[in-house]
Amino acid sequence: MNVQTNSRKQQSITGDLKLSISLCYYICFCFPSHSRHGTNRANGKAMVGGVALLREASPSPWSVLAGVAAALVLWWAAQVLEYAWWAPRRMERALRAQGLRGTRYRFLWGDLKEESRLTAAALARPVRTDRPHDVFPRVSPLLHRVVQEHGKLSFTWFGTTPRITITDPQLAREVMSNKDGCFLKTKITTRVTKLLFGGVAILDAEKWAKHRRILNPAFHTEKLKGMLPAFTAACSDLICRWENLVADSVGSKELDIWSEFQSLSGDVISRAVFGVSYQEGRRIFRLQAEQVVRVTNAFKTNHIPGFSLLPTENNRRMKAIDRETKTILRGIIEKRHEAMKNGEPTTTRDDLLGMLLESNMNYTDSDGKSSRGITLEEVIEECKLFYFAGTETTAVLLTWTIVVLSMHPEWQDQARDEVLEVFGQNNPDLSGVSRLKVVTMVLYEVLRLYPPALFINRRTYKQTELGGVMYPPDVMVMVPIMFIHRDPDLWGDDAGEFNPRRFADGVSKACSDPGAFIPFSWGPRICIGQNFALLEAKLAISMILQRFAFELSPAYVHAPYNVLTLHPQHGVLVRLRQL
Ligand code: HEM
Fold first, then answer.
1. Secondary structure element (H or E) that encloses residue 549, with its range
2. Could you give the domains of the chain?
């Protein structure tokens, strides 16, 4: 398709340009001849008159100006039509010509309006109580419908951009491993999400490689050991607060664990990133929580060029939040940098910021030559990213784990028995954590059914072959994690059920294709914080199981929905009973 499509595209663009130029010529030169040389028009020789005019007399400055303005308007209109109609229609024809099926392109909005309508309708309905884990149609109603109607390899429209759904794990791996450097981060997502996070997650090519090399050492398992006290301190604070709340009430206490876990993971990340100055980091966590909701709203409109520049209330507030976050971070980082330069005590190097600054100071290019690391502004962006990536996702994992263990009390009991056997009433340590088999199986099964990140999005950077189909540049490619995690062809007939036993012999034996378990993505861009997140989750769940039994409140409504990550729509009310 592509060579032809591209040459067709070129021809079409050239054709459009020719049309615009001809029209401009006519307007610039023939239109004045109409008004000023009526006799020429009357005898039907406008063009001849225009050319004669050119030869014999110059047009007035006003008519030239009007002509230029009209030409500009026409040129602009042609650009808009090219962007919002001709280009998407050409891409659609090219995809269909190769046998791909999908939704019909709709002017400018593509499927965005339909997606909003379907999502609003899905969110108004609760999940069926007889199949509580069957949440995909609610979380992603458009994709659910499209796969049923058009098959597993199909396309939808993100505004004017075709979005290909890749559900085959083999092909998904090619996308995630960035085969031949063809798949980059999506531009559409990046423009809006920059206000929420930047850094390594939105970079590509050499810049990405450099940032990733500087960050990697901070996330080594060895370094995580040093952060254990910070994790334990944050979890102990949570447990202490819960114990006081239960003690003040008779028998059991109802709590919204969603907001509890958001604070916990905000606290953990503040301590892990900033060490002793973690109190200052807490304000960032609150600002980021508001920014997530605002950025999600902005997705509905900000794909339209120029929309993010309009001074709407949402746009202004998002920019203000971003400014405040950066100011707080700049203050903390500058202080720390100064302290390190002056050789102040090394304790501050045990946190993520200290390790990042140290790795940055020692940075050497891959060719071995010494080179400058990343700038202060780039360090700020990385810290902002830690907040987003490390807070929301882990809070989501902990929340759904408590929900699912409440729905399946037999697994709650098994997990508690294991925790008590390994740690007794002591605080968890690293060697004990590595022996937790049931807890690990439960966490994997929760990550399978309720993956915090639902999609991995990329765009084709150039003409790209994938699974026998040629895609033009700038097509969006989406790997739907939750869909792949629930595909009965990969996981068997009980794919929709909670069964941690499937992970008893490890991830590689849990399904027919080991690459089908991708909660942390795969390949070079795999989540840098996965060990961090799993350690935090294992510590928190162990400490909770040691001290409390829990069940869902009768008021709880099971309603997962997608707000960049998989939130509970109405919070999660849980009844806690101290053991
Ligand atoms: C349960 C918890 C977590 C889940 C499910 C998760 C999931 C993911 C996924 C799916 C990606 C890949 C996105 C893509 O390829 O487009 C990713 C990337 C990333 N995550 Fe996580 N994450 C979690 C926790 C964390 C934590 C705790 C941190 C840091 C403290 C972190 C930092 C990052 C960073 C920096 C990237 C970008 C890596 C790159 O592009 O090279 N994540 N995460």
1. strand 548-552
2. 116-578 (1.10.630.10)
